[in-house]
Design a protein that fits this description.
Number of helices: 27
Number of strands: 21
Strand order of the largest sheet: 11-12-10-13-14-9-15
Distance between the termini: 23 Å
Radius of gyration: 32 Å
Structural class: alpha/beta
Strand content: 15-25%
Helix content: 25-40%
């Protein structure tokens, strides 16, 4: 896409240093190629030629007329108190009627010199009314010097590109700069193989660039966009296909479970049968583990669909085959939680080498950064000797000191919090590359999975196990209806009175320094200007006010790990009624007795985050309740987002809504290096077909020619993408 050789000319050589500097600093454009790939956001039409006698209100029109009169007035205003303000009034006529044009202040100089009585010109602008007279404010105009009627028609019908601009550089200046470099588009090297382009009836890249910047008709824009969308989808899919191809060449040890081993013993212990979905996904995983190439699989499942159980069965299959399995969790709270639930599920099978351990048992060890030295030494020794078949930990697992006896499988929980380097560092711990299973509870629309996780095969768990209860969700408009908030706290008291527990989630801890500039994200209204509610403040207010007499505790990320674990244990044991926490409880925390959740300042959280949080309740037999408290006004986008979350429990539906409300760049480049999204015309949701077809075509091309030796244009485009984005899409970090 960008930076094809002939287009590597720096802009400062072509446009002059001042413009080039603004383009580099504010738009990230450095070369002629960058500028050619800075596409118009939309197009203005000057409008059809209109007679002055029948001008429509509030529409963009183009008229051809003669200047009858031009007068310059001075006036006083708040900006020009000493009568220094200037207004130029020009009256034009076309024989059918008259119209006034108005220019103000600095905008008067050029028209004052050019629009002299008797001058004929085309004028384009939006019709408005002032003092009951029609007028055009600051219209665009083009002087006509004996030109033919065709020129007039062409100028009026032209589509004017409107570019993504900045305060320092208006769209029309960008348009002029594009005009300067447009001849270079002829030298753009086409990344699409000819057969693909011709087979799909796509225009060439030079033609697409000309048509997107200088369209003669709307059909030109459509041609250019469909071609450029293919470029983006195809080059990205080729990058991912090459990664899959390279991974498939790596050797791995096939791991097949023994028919009478620890996996069979574990399945016999299960007090329930696996859902159809769990069985199907397990089969896909076992088939991958049995091959001599590393598995690369993404397991996405709704909150509470039993992903941990599926992952544990995969780990046990590897232990059966004589290997070790490591599970990587993003936080200590989650690592401890996983360790607890895995050892509980396994019972005596997790007591390898201990009295009372089953004959097929193995050891399950926990490894986190905050462990004491002695416990850590013991865990490291168990890993190095192979005594421990399963290890669960945070990124402490990646440290150099950690050595495995024979690492066969890596399970990464909540993938979006780990970069590829971390994944690869852990994979490097095996004698040969271990198999990889990546889990996420954030439902990802199919196209995003193909785009962001395109180097992984995907399995989806969309059935909830029997016994999971429905969760009712409601928006609580605290500003419009304060009595609703009072009722919310009553509901919490009722749940506790019925023997259940509740979470209250806040966006902030409350012991940090607040930067006054960052206290509000935008000035949508006062609710946005105040700092987000904090755990420490809210817990204190609740304990002294609406929840007085209940046992309220706090949990947040800056507490000492031992304290965090103690709080979680007390809550899990039912000793605490209400846990006021930050999003540390977002993933994996499992307390079936917790039935209610109140999310304060819910508008400060993203859609998928709210869905994740809500998944912490309704995990037992009693129904769950989630209350989304907000002060945002009813008409705001934030309220619409919350209404969407309250209206459905379908995570895939919500992830689509989430994606439609945000730009793709935010989703694809979430937590990336901050580089701009390389998707400029491709919309991940709308262009599902193109992405799916591009993936197929890319797989064919890479299978036939992995090094792309026969496709130099594609090779160049790929280098540009990977260089510019530092493989950011493939790093999904």
């Amino acid at each position: 896409m960008d930076l094809v050789p002939a287009l590597q000319e720096p802009l400062k050589k072509v446009l002059g240093p001042a413009t080039a500097k603004v383009m580099a600093e504010h738009l990230g454009l450095h070369t002629v190629g960058d500028l050619l790939h800075h596409y118009p956001r939309r197009y203005e039409e000057r409008g059809q030629l209109t007679h002055l006698a029948d001008l429509p209100m509030d529409e963009h029109v183009t008229v051809v007329a003669q200047v009858a009169d031009a007068r310059l007035h001075t006036f006083a205003s708040s900006r020009a108190p000493r009568g220094k303000g200037q207004r130029l009034e020009v009256t034009i006529t076309d024989g059918s009627g008259r119209l006034q044009l108005v220019f103000f202040n600095a905008g008067v100089h050029k028209p004052h010199k050019e629009l002299l009585p008797g001058t004929r010109a085309m004028f384009a602008g939006k019709v408005s009314v002032f003092n009951r007279r029609l007028q055009l404010n600051h219209p665009a105009y083009e002087l006509l010097r004996g030109d033919s009627e065709e020129t007039v028609e062409a100028w009026a019908g032209a589509l004017i590109p409107i570019y993504p601009a900045t305060a320092k550089l208006e769209s029309w200046k960008i348009g002029k700069a594009v005009q300067t470099v447009l001849p270079s588009a002829q030298e753009a090297v086409d990344p699409l193989p000819d057969s693909l382009r011709e087979g799909r009836g796509l225009v060439s890249l030079p033609e697409a660039l000309l048509k997107i910047h200088r369209p003669q008709t709307k059909a030109d824009i459509a041609d250019a966009r469909s071609r450029l969308k293919w470029d983006e989808a195809f080059v990205l899919q080729v990058a991912l296909a090459r990664r899959r191809h390279a991974d498939a060449q790596l050797p791995a040890v096939a791991r097949r479970p023994r028919p009478d081993g620890i996996l069979a013993a574990f399945d016999d212990r299960l007090p329930f049968t696996l859902t159809e979905g769990q069985q199907k996904v397990s089969e896909e995983i076992f088939a991958d583990l049995a091959t001599e190439h590393p598995m690369h699989r993404l397991l996405q499942g709704e909150v509470g669909s039993g992903k941990t159980l599926v992952a544990l069965r995969a780990m046990l299959a590897v232990v059966d085959a004589g290997g070790q399995a490591a599970m990587l969790a993003p936080t200590e709270v989650l690592a401890q939680q996983h360790h607890r639930s895995v050892t509980e599920m396994m019972g005596e099978l997790a007591e390898g080498g201990m009295l009372g351990g089953a004959e097929d048992a193995t050891k399950v060890v926990l490894l986190t950064g905050s462990m004491g030295a002695a416990a850590r030494r013991k865990a490291l020794l168990d890993l190095a000797t192979g005594e421990a078949g399963i290890v669960i930990g945070t990124h402490a697992l990646i440290e150099d000191k950690v050595q495995f006896h024979d690492l066969g499988l890596v399970v990464v929980d909540e993938q979006h919090r780990f970069g590829v380097e971390q994944r690869d560092a852990l994979r490097g711990k095996g004698k040969q590359p271990p198999h990889l299973l990546v889990m996420t509870a954030t439902p990802i629309p199919r196209t995003v999975a193909m785009t962001v996780f395109g180097d992984l095969e995907t399995s989806v768990l969309d059935q909830l196990p029997a016994g999971r209860s429905p969760i009712a969700s409601h928006v609580v408009p605290a500003a419009d209806k304060p009595h609703f908030l009072a009722r919310a706290w009553e509901r919490v008291r009722e749940e506790v009175a019925n023997g259940h527990q509740a979470y209250v989630v806040c966006p902030r801890i409350g012991d940090e320094e607040l930067d006054p500039k960052k206290a509000g994200k935008s000035a949508e209204d006062d609710a946005e200007k105040r700092p987000p509610l904090a755990v420490l403040d809210v817990a204190e207010q609740l304990a002294r006010g609406p929840l007085e007499g209940l046992k309220v505790e706090v949990l947040h990320g800056r507490m000492h790990p031992d304290d965090k674990d103690a709080v979680m244990r007390r809550f899990a044991a039912g000793e605490t009624d209400v846990l006021v926490a930050t999003t540390v409880i977002e993933v994996g925390v499992n307390v079936p007795n917790a039935t209610a959740m109140v999310i304060m300042d819910a508008d400060r959280f993203g859609v998928s985050q709210l869905h994740q949080l809500r998944g912490r309740v309704g995990r037992g037999s009693a129904p769950g309740l989630c209350l989304l408290v907000t002060e945002m006004p009813e008409a705001s986008a934030a309220r619409q987002r919350l209404n969407a979350v309250a209206s459905t429990l379908d995570g895939f539906e919500l992830s689509r809504i989430d994606l439609e409300q945000r730009r793709e760049g935010d989703v694809l480049g979430q937590a990336q290096s901050g580089a701009r999204s390389s998707l400029r015309v491709l919309a991940v949701i709308e262009d599902e077909e193109i992405i799916a077809e591009a993936r197929e075509e890319a797989a064919k091309v890479v299978a036939a020619d992995p090094e792309l030796e026969r496709l130099p244009g594609l090779r160049t485009a790929l280098d540009a993408l990977l260089d510019e984005e530092r493989e950011q899409y493939l790093e999904k970090g």
